[in-house]
Amino acid sequence: MQIIASNLAFPEGPVVMPDGSIVVVEIAGGTVRRIQPGGATSLVATVGGGPNGAALGPDGKLYICNNGGLQFIERDGVRRPIGAARDYDGGRIEVIDVETGRVERLYDRCGEHRLAGPNDLVFDSSGGFWFTDSGKHHRRHSDHGGLYWARTDGSEIREVLHPLASPNGVGLSPDGSVLYIADTASARLWAWDVVGPGQLAKAPYPAQMGGRLIGAAPGITRFDSLAVSASGKILVATIMNGGVAEFWPDGGTMRHHPLPDLHVTNLAFGGPDMRTAYITFSQAGALVALRWHEPGLALNDGRKSS
């Protein structure tokens, strides 16, 4: 394992860029940074709030899930989020021009409802994107989370699943026919069949929101974001029990790969053979790289046209 960069403010959302650099968000800093393979960092943009998930769109721009901001505390040497920031005023989807740093707000509501805490996103082959909203915990109440689908031109945003308990990571199978969601609090991985852009087939009750359970993690574990391997395995970053949980898509097998950080929050694949896993250690404030035992999935993003 190689430490690429450190002293990051609760990093998440790694994106491997066409030139081999890696973009990460800093949730606690409200910033987006670009990290060169040698470790040099530069500021892409300051967005404020809590930039959480990121993806490179088919237009070459960065799409950001901004949760609106989190309040952090440090106790027993552990820094962790505990709910909405004091200046929280809602979540949003933002678009960043990587070359200029210009930030545009694409969506902050779906119909009459404000977005609460957009968390993670993935593009499909149609050029639209799915994103989770984890909801928001306030001092005396919580806002529900959900799953949404939207177009990049701002013309359509669709609420697909609502309410969900604590949806976090979202990803697609290699052929795009299955959508996966990792639920944070229950440490469960769910799947739905995709039947069209922004459309899911739903199983009847008692399935949770029409999804089927792929698997769960034992013990004190919480799920964060996820990635998918080229073979179709689903790789979920785990917090509390820090590491990566690797699930077979048929739900028959799960194995946990421990890593030395309490808050392993996200991973992305890159390198010539797509076997370099770039992983965010949010507790340590670091981006690390390690060799994975198989290639990651090539995403539906701007790297294909570069």
Would you give an account of this structure?
- With 306 residues, the chain is mostly beta strands.
- It has a single domain (2-305), classed as 6 Propeller (Neuraminidase), CATH 2.120.10.30.
- Helices cover 0% and strands 54% of the residues.
- The protein has no helices and 31 strands.
- The chain has strands at 2-5, 11-16, 22-26, 31-35, 41-46, 51-56, 62-66, 70-75, 78-84, 92-96, 103-107, 109-110, 113-114, 118-123, 129-133, 136-137, 142-143, 145-150, 157-164, 167-172, 178-183, 188-196, 199-201, 212-216, 222-228, 234-239, 243-247, 254-258, 264-270, 276-281, 286-291.
- The strands form nine sheets. Strands 20, 21, 22, 23 and 24 form a five-stranded antiparallel sheet that branches. A four-stranded antiparallel sheet has the order 1-31-30-29, with no helix packed on it.
- The protein is globular.
- The two termini are 28 Å apart.
- The mean pLDDT is 96.
